[in-house]
Specification:
The complex is a heterodimer of chains A (114) and B (113). Chain A has 114 residues and is mainly β. Chain A has no helices and nine strands. Classes of the chains: A mainly beta (114), B mainly beta (113).
């Protein structure tokens, strides 16, 4: 799976949008970008994933650049409960002969402040 | 919606003892994954099962074994426990026909004394 690079930490004011970047310059054509977050010692929580189109759900938006070498996770109105470590993970898609295990990198520690 | 269930949530063992962790996947999910997260570390993939067969293997020690049963629940068996095995153990499940997005359980915190 492609390697990802994320900032170690970020701050965001409550109520503002949190924009978390991720670089995955070696991503392959059949690899998806997944985002998970982990709130202190809880199980990682799935947020969103995409292949090449921008995606939006009730939690966040995912913007993928046209060359697919980077992406940005957007939390439109961050709250204190969004304080967590956010992981950007590149993983093969369906019908792959490779495993689907998630390779958690270092992630970005997001602190939402009042 | 039903989530992944893990038991026990907390476990304390002595060195050289054995431990068994259980994972009950989301209904109709056919794949189970096990991850280990040491103190201050990121989750690391151990092993996965699809339709009761081992599908992928990560950094699982030889002292550990796992299996998936006919009802799709999975058990991680850990023998000759070492202090370094103290960690959070997460189970995740997914459904191959639904794109393999993994959903995680709350974890089992294992402390080896």
């Amino acid at each position: 799976d492609a390697k990802t690079t994320q900032p170690t930490s970020m701050d965001c004011a409550e109520g503002r949008a949190a924009n978390l970047p991720c670089n995955h310059s070696t991503i392959s054509g059949n690899e998806y970008v997944y985002w998970y977050r982990q709130i202190h010692s809880q199980g990682p929580q799935y947020i969103i994933h995409g292949l090449k189109n921008n995606e939006t759900n009730e939690m966040a938006s995912l913007i993928i650049t046209e060359d697919r070498k980077s992406s940005t996770l957007i939390l439109p109105h961050a709250t204190l409960r969004d304080t967590a470590v956010y992981y950007c993970i590149v993983r093969v898609g369906r019908n792959s002969n490779s495993g689907y295990a998630l390779n958690f990198g270092k992630g970005t520690s997001l602190l939402v402040t009042p | 919606a039903a989530g992944v269930i893990q038991s026990p949530r907390h476990l304390i063992k002595e060195k050289r003892e054995t431990a068994t962790l259980k994972c009950y996947p989301i209904p109709r999910h056919d794949t189970v994954y096990w991850y280990q997260q040491g103190p201050g570390q990121d989750p690391q993939f151990l092993i996965s099962f699809y339709e009761k067969m081992q599908s992928d293997k990560g950094s699982i020690p030889d002292r550990f074994s796992a299996q998936q049963f006919s009802d799709y629940h999975s058990e991680l068996n850990m023998s000759s426990l070492e202090l370094g095995d103290s960690a959070l153990y997460f189970c995740a499940s997914s459904a191959r026909l639904l794109g393999e997005t993994q959903y995680f359980g709350p974890g089992t915190r294992l402390l080896v004394l």
